[in-house]
Design goal:
The complex is a heterodimer of chains A (about 525) and B (about 100). Chain A is an alpha+beta fold and about 525 residues long. Helix content of chain A is about 35%, strand content about 20%. In chain A, the strands form four sheets. In chain A, strands 1, 2, 4, 8, 9, 12, 13, 14, 15 and 16 form a ten-stranded mixed sheet that branches. Chain A has a three-stranded antiparallel sheet with strand order 7-6-17, with no helix packed on it. A two-stranded antiparallel ribbon of chain A has the order 5-18. In chain A, helix 6 crosses helix 7, helix 8 packs across helix 9 and helix 12 packs across helix 13. The relative contact order of chain A is 0.10. Chain B has a domain of about 40 residues: Histone, subunit A, CATH 1.10.20.60. In chain B, strands 2-3 form a two-stranded antiparallel sheet. The chains are: A alpha+beta (about 525), B mainly alpha (about 100). At the A-B interface, strand 3, helix 2, strand 10, strand 11 and strand 18 of A face strand 1, helix 3 and strand 3 of B. Strand 3 of chain A pairs parallel with strand 1 of chain B. The structure holds zinc ion. The site of zinc ion (ZN) has 8 residues of chain A, from loops. Zinc ion binds next to loops of chain A.
């Protein structure tokens, strides 16, 4: 039997050659890596998918629970209309087709983190079909190449509860019982399934990063991997170029974009090794062990899993007439690709543009430029010193009270010569300390941070330094040009670091003659 | 349509039910009767009738995204076979499904 998608059509994959990706070299020849990704996104609606329980993240265990989300007999689920709107918006952002009619199925499931013994999901007619994503893959030389990854489907389902394994070891293996908190159970979840169009780890990472940026841009989720609001599983196989698709394994427990790349690279080599040693790949789920850098068998799929999907009789079909879809389309924000292009035109480098978008700093950039800042300068400060200081303090920019207007004010103070770069960094620290209650000009004034560039004032200090360092001056006159650095240092010391370095240099040369 | 004993065992395994041979023997004709009953629908299904999952002409039943009160936790945990640390205690999970 050949592999098919969930809707029954044969799986079509692109080839590495089409994407300009190198083949992998084994002992017996070349291999092509084929990867498809399944990404789950937890929506940030106020209530769960089928009931009015709150989705509040930090709530005490089992306090956001009702008869519907614990599957009590007779309880009836009702669709959260915001979740459908959010899913539609993301589907449009991923260039997908919105199904005019879609429905929900029950997927049989036998683990206690879903109390119903089934998960409500979508099967034959998902909400979204046939999308695609163009991803920019860095080529390592500061350049990037664009690759298209097709998206098979996006469907709506529900999250599971959270399990705590207790007993001897605290880990799943050896635990003697599991404790379940159903607060997360029933929170709206989207599953986004890519086609097997990925042929290297870099593209897989770029796809996940781009998807994460798009999810954040649409505002449907904060898409934080570390908090589990975006999760990724990878389907990995290898084949000889031109052959049918090989048997795939599914890799789970990928907790970061870095893990995704490492796990794919490891799994490709493992599969090539098995086949070249005369073995065969078993269809199975494998667990990525981040510490040891290996994948391990979690469970073997002895047959194609029979989830016995059937239409949920408690839920009716959802229609998406063209006018509803078009109304949602008008809510689409600027997407990362367009943001990158716009930042590029404003003089921002591709790396900085990617960093601004990925870290959610775009609104600060836009505010700074609107307040008169030069784009390249604003980008430099935001992803450079400001991001560095915030990360050292463990603060998000909103918590630090820093605004785009502050960034513009800082840059203006540098441009008019009031602050040197070094002093400006102290001013940033001051604004963060004040949590934004004081702007850069106020901080500079309060702390007496002002570059000494007044010609007369600086000349007096330069003359004193020259007079006091006769030996150094002699050396400079004798041709040791580098020695001037020592004198610049002296002037800086006299002015507590506030001298304009360029002007100091000029005056020193003038006075020494 | 008559179900074989193997088919009954397969269905039982999917439903995580352990059946004795005697139960399989008893259930095979019963399940076959239920199937035959459902097959009667096929006799009236015409080409021009769309397959349906509902007897009602309802679509787009939804609710606004407005929080409603949940149950008091004592009531929730009262339904648990074993409660511990404000959670439902269950036998250990053998393997995890995603
Ligand atoms: Zn609920």
């Amino acid at each position: 039997m050949s592999a098919t998608t969930m809707s029954g059509e044969p799986i079509s994959a692109t080839t590495a050659a089409e994407h300009g990706v190198d083949l992998l070299q084994g002992d017996t020849g070349e291999w092509e890596l084929v990867v498809g990704l399944e990404v789950h996104v937890e929506l940030q609606t106020r209530t769960k998918m089928w009931c009015g329980c709150s989705t509040d993240f930090g709530a005490d265990p089992n306090t956001n629970v009702c008869p519907v989300c614990t599957g009590q007999p007779g309880a009836l689920p009702v669709v959260n209309e915001q979740a459908v709107r959010d899913a539609t918006l993301l589907g449009l952002a991923l260039n997908g087709e919105i199904a005019p009619i879609c429905r929900f199925h029950r997927k049989n499931y036998f683990y206690p983190d879903l109390a119903k013994n089934y998960q409500i999901s979508q099967y034959d007619v998902p909400l979204v079909n046939d999308g695609w994503l163009d991803v920019e893959v860095p080529t390592g030389d500061g350049q990037s190449v664009s690759r298209r990854v097709r998206i098979e489907r996006l469907h709506m389902e529900e999250d599971t509860g959270k399990s705590l394994h207790v007993g001897d070891t605290g880990r799943l293996h050896g635990a003697d019982r599991s404790l379940i908190d159903y607060n997360r159970c029933g929170i709206p979840l989207l599953e986004i399934v890519s086609r097997p169009d990925i042929h290297d780890a870099d593209t897989a990472q770029a796809y996940l990063r781009e998807l994460q940026s798009i999810v954040r841009a649409t505002g449907v989720s904060d898409a934080r991997m570390e908090e589990g609001s975006i999760r990724c599983d990878a389907n990995v196989s290898v084949r000889r170029p031109g052959d049918e698709l090989g048997t795939r394994t599914e890799i789970k427990n990928l907790n970061s974009i870095r893990s995704l790349g490492r796990a794919i690279a490891y799994e490709a080599q493992r599969q090539i090794g098995v086949i070249e040693d005369g073995g065969t790949i078993v269809m199975e789920t494998r667990h990525w062990d981040e510490g040891r850098g290996v994948t391990e068998t979690l469970r073997v799929k002895e047959s194609v899993t029979d989830y016995r999907y059937f239409p949920d009789p408690d839920l009716v079909e959802i229609t998406s007439p063209a006018e509803k879809v078009e109304a949602i389309r008008t809510l689409l924000p600027e997407l990362p690709a367009a943001s990158r292009a716009r930042l590029g035109e404003a003089g921002v480098t591709p790396e900085q543009a990617a960093a601004i978008i990925a870290t959610g700093l775009l609104p600060w950039f836009d505010d700074a430029v609107a307040a008169g800042a030069d784009g390249a300068a604003a980008a430099n400060w935001l992803v450079g010193d400001i991001a560095g200081q915030l990360s050292a303090e463990g603060l998000r920019i909103e918590a630090a009270g820093l605004t785009g207007a502050h960034v513009a004010e800082l840059i203006a103070l540098i441009e008019d010569g009031t602050l040197s770069t070094k002093l400006a960094k102290q001013v940033v620290a001051g604004v963060i300390d004040a949590r934004g209650a004081k702007g850069p000009a106020q901080v500079a004034e309060d702390q007496g941070l002002r570059q000494v560039s007044d010609e007369g004032e600086l000349r007096t200090i330069v003359e004193q330094v020259v007079a006091a360092n006769a030996d150094t001056v002699e050396a400079i006159r004798g041709g040791n040009d580098k020695a001037i650095g020592a004198l610049v240092g002296q002037v800086m010391k006299e002015t507590r670091g506030q001298a304009d370095p360029r002007k100091t240099n000029e005056l020193l040369r003038e006075v020494i003659g | 349509m008559a179900l074989s004993a193997d088919e009954v065992r397969h269905v039982a395994r999917l439903a995580r039910l352990a059946l004795t041979d005697a139960e399989v023997e008893a259930l095979a004709p019963q399940l076959s009767q239920i199937l035959a009953y459902a097959e009667q629908v096929g006799e009236v299904a015409a080409q021009d009738v769309e397959p349906t999952t509902h007897p009602f002409a309802l679509r787009d039943v939804s609710r606004p995204d407005e929080p409603q009160p949940s149950l008091p936790r004592e009531d929730v945990l009262a339904a648990a076979p074993h409660a511990e640390q404000d959670r439902f205690g269950v036998p250990r999970i053998v393997s995890e499904e995603g």
